[in-house]
Amino acid sequence: MKTRIFKVLMTGMVLGLGGTGVATAAECIAPANPGGGWDFTCRQISKIMYDIGAVDKPIQVTNMSGGGGGLAFNHVVGERDDDADLIIAASSATSTRLAQNAYAGMTADQVRFVGAIGIDPGVIVVGADSPFKTLSDLLDAVVADPSSVTFAGGSAVGGFDHMKPLMLLQRAGLTDITKIKYIGLDGGGDAITQTIGGFTQAMTGDMSEVVGFLAAGDIRVLAVLTDERVAGFDDIPTAIEQGYDVVAGNWRGLYIPRGVSDETFEMWAGRLQQVADSDEWAEAMTANGLAPFTMVGNDFQGYIDNLVVEIRQMSKDIGVIQ
Questions:
Q1: What is the CA 257 to chain-centroid distance, rounded?
Q2: Whole-model pTM?
Q3: pLDDT tier at 147, thresholds 50, 70, 90
Q4: What are the residues facing 113 on neighbouring strands?
Q5: Is the pLDDT of residue 200 over 90?
Q6: φ, ψ for residue 224 (rounded to 5)?
Q7: What is the mean pLDDT of residues 59-64?
C-alpha cells in the first residue's frame, strides 16, 4: 500500500532529530487518542529526550487510534518498515494483543521492541478480612481446589488482568488453568468492589487502581508483580520474593520498525536509557503512579519474545484463541 492511512490527530512540531544524518522528521506514534497511556508515553518520553539533550530537536507526536493499536501497527509494518526516525508507544496491551492475534494476522516479530522504562505494577488483592494472609495462602488454596476462589479483574476474559493469576498459578504447580474462575468487569474499580463485598475472593489489577482502597483499609495487597518493592508501599512483598517468578504490570515503552539497522535499534535503546536515568522521568513516574521498570535493547526484546509465547499458550489453554 503506497498511500498512507491517517486517521489521526496531528499535534506537536514537525522537526528533525539531530545526530541521525537524516533530514526527515522524527516522529512518535501514539496508537490512541490524546489522554491515554500510549499518548502519555509518546509525549513524556519525546519531551524528556529533547529536554535532556538525547536529541537536539523536538519530536513530532502523532495520535493514530484504531483497532486497539492495530491501525498503527499495520501502518508501521506496511508502510514505514525501514523508517529510522520513527518510534511507537507500546504497553502490555500491545504484547497481549499480538500474542492473541488481535491485529489481523500481524505478529510481534514484525517490529523491534526497544524497551520499557516504567510500569503500573500488577497486584493481587484480597479483602481486609480475607483468610488469605499471604500469596502462598491464596495460591495453595486454588491449587488444592480451583473452584474455591474466583478472581475479579478489570479486563475481559483473556485480557492481561486474567493472565496475571494464571502465570502465578502455573508457577505454583497448577497444570490445568482452565479450571481457574475469573470474572472480567468494566474496570479495576468494579473488580475491587466485588472483592471487598465478598462476591469474589481476590482481585487482579494494577497498583494505581487499588491505592485509595488500600489507604482506606478495605483491602490487603498480597503481592506486587515487580522486580523490587514499590517505593511508598515498602511493606508489600513482591511475588518474586515469595517464590513466584512473575513480573507483570502495564509497562510503558516503545517499539520501532523491523527493517531498521542494528545501529538504529541500539541508538534508540540508548536514548531511552538516558530518559530512564533522568530526574525528569523519575518525576514523571511519581506524578503518574508508575514504578521503575527499566529494560532496554536486546534484553527487552527477549522479554517480549518470551512473554508473547507464554500468553499465546495460556490464551489457547483457556480457549481465547485456537
A1: 19
A2: 0.78
A3: very high
A4: 255
A5: yes
A6: -110, 135
A7: 96
- 322 belongs to a structural domain: no
* CATH number of the domain that residue 65 is part of: 3.40.190.150
| Cα angle 36, 41, 44; round to 5 | 115
Q: pLDDT of 270-299, one tens digit each? A: 999 999 999 999 999 888 878 888 999 999
Looking at the structure, do residues 253 and 111 belong to the same domain, yes or no? yes
The angle formed by the CA atoms of residues 203, 31 and 56, to the nearest 5 degrees, is 115
Place of cell 539531530: 18
CB neighbours of 187 closer than 8 A, spacing ≥ 6? 154, 209
- Cell 523491534 found at: 112
Average pLDDT over residues 258-281: 97
For the cut 90, the answer to whether the pLDDT of residue 237 exceeds it is yes
pLDDT value of residue 25 = 62
Does residue 217 fall inside a structural domain? yes
Grid cell at residue 118? 516504567
**Cβ count within 10 A of residue 273:** 18
Range of the domain at 199: 121-242
Mean pLDDT value across the chain: 89
Averaged pLDDT for residues 85-93: 95
